[in-house]
Write a structure and sequence with these properties.
about 325 residues, alpha/beta, Rossmann fold, six-stranded mixed sheet, four-stranded parallel sheet
């Protein structure tokens, strides 16, 4: 079954406020904490989305998207495409609704993410990354007959993520900039939409790994691009093979600049977060801090910079290996 997407439109702040009320009983209102890196660095705050029940921000979007489906759509069960975090979010929401969930899962996703999706009741269909990315474009998978929940290109999913922006402004009204990792683009579109609606002068930065940076390339070229020589890495929650034209349309009016960090910079950020804040962040979750640590943020920005720690789902053995080599 092909799910035809609605036309791209702006995320309205009233949608975000409604989503906040709708998902309040499902998500955790995560804290905003200070990270002190010393006098050579700006005032950094961490938005700890790794503390969500699924240890990732995706629960916000999934909870809102599922809540907005009709009774008939819910009865059919849900399916999505995921490297792990979106799959957990949709599976969590499906379990709460008492319906089945299937996930077209990227076959080399971390075992911890695979195990957690199964533990939440999801039936997994492991496929190569290329097949998963194509499935996201097609919005159909021959072995599944259920209601598709897109993990980023969905108005309700994005509005759920945008609730994070409301929380950031509640906790730090003087926020000057927010940095978030980009995979499909739903996180940064959501957070940025809420922030720009209520405080237009806030700067919104996206960050990607050097091995998979199609959004930065698209910004440079002025149109959605495919990233040449894409490579898989431990940063499995960010960095796509391309930017979907619909997501480019969403991000273009929201994101002020796109940053690229190396894998070594990301490992160092993961280590710093563990040492200084006792935070376990997966690669995508640590990249905003990596961008600050590598001085990729305009030093003219005055005021708190919020780094979205988008998730902490990583095999502990792999985490220890990565931070030991940083």
């Amino acid at each position: 079954m092909t799910a035809t997407p609605e036309p791209v439109r702006k995320i309205d702040i009233d949608e975000v406020r409604a989503a906040r009320e709708r998902i309040a009983g499902t998500i955790v209102r995560t804290p905003l904490v200070r990270l002190d890196l010393g006098p050579d660095f700006p005032d950094i705050r961490l938005k700890l989305e790794n503390l969500q029940p699924i240890n990732a921000y995706k629960l916000r979007g999934a909870a809102n998207a599922v809540a907005m489906l009709s009774n008939d759509e819910r009865k059919r069960g849900f399916w999505t495409v995921s490297a792990g975090n979106a799959g957990q979010g949709v599976a969590y929401a499906a379990r709460k609704a008492g319906v089945p969930c299937s996930v077209v899962a990227i076959e080399n996703a971390p075992q911890a993410k695979m195990d957690r999706m199964r533990a939440l009741g999801a039936k997994l269909f492991p496929v190569p990354y290329e097949v998963a990315w194509k499935t996201l474009e097609d919005r159909q998978f021959p072995e599944i007959d259920a209601t598709f929940v897109h993990p980023f290109d969905d108005q309700d999913f994005i509005a759920g993520h945008a609730t994070m922006g409301l929380e950031i402004l509640d906790d730090e009204p003087d926020v000057a900039a927010v940095i978030a990792s980009i995979g499909g683009g739903g996180l940064i579109t959501g957070v940025g939409s809420a922030l720009k609606a209520l405080k237009p002068d806030v700067k919104v930065f996206g960050v990607e790994p050097e091995t998979a940076a199609p959004a930065a390339l698209s910004f440079q070229k002025g149109s959605p691009q495919v990233f040449p020589n894409w490579k898989a890495s431990f940063v499995d929650g960010a960095g796509g093979q391309s930017v979907f034209p619909r997501m480019w349309e969403r991000m273009k009016p929201i994101v002020d600049d796109y940053l690229v960090v190396s894998l070594d910079e990301t490992k160092k950020a993961m280590r710093i977060l563990a040492e200084k804040a006792r935070v376990i962040a997966e690669g995508a979750g640590a990249m905003p801090v990596a961008a600050v640590m590598s001085h990729k943020i305009d030093n003219r920005i005055r005021g708190p910079i919020v780094c979205v720690i988008s998730g902490g789902n990583i095999d502990l053995a792999k985490f220890c290996e990565l931070i030991a080599s940083a």
